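Input chain follows. Return structure tokens only.
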Amino acid sequence: MRPVKVPPMLQALVQTAVLSVDGKEFAALTVCPACGGAVAGYDWKDRKFATVTDNGEPRPVMVKVRRFRCRDCGKVSPALAPFYPDTRLGSPVVDLCMVLSRTMTPGRTVAFMRTLGIIVDRGTVRDLSARDLPEIATAEIFGVLLPRSIISLSMVAFRNL
């Protein structure tokens, strides 16, 4: 397979977006999603948002998600966070996998994402492609179709610099 060429600005944009959530806490939930009852804090859970390449070494990007227990039905629910149900990666990373896999094979998608500095495996790309996820809004940047979720995340990161 020939090497994947990615504009350096695109790589910086995606890296900045993903790294901007490292260590962030998500703690917003006002009512129980199951019954609408009042919720009380339960505990915190560390979740892996993505794995990035840092000086050639894999580095997890972690976030903290608050969990709540419903006072009425007792169900434990996570705070609103950037994750799709039953996925192990942050929704912008999932969106990127989905958008790229529309025009590339799983192996090519993995190589392209690795060039962007995000590590996923081919099986993950295949599994995500088979899921029934909502329509992903996209925009073309530097000749590459990217999900708007990555672009939005990078804009927030640049504002916080």
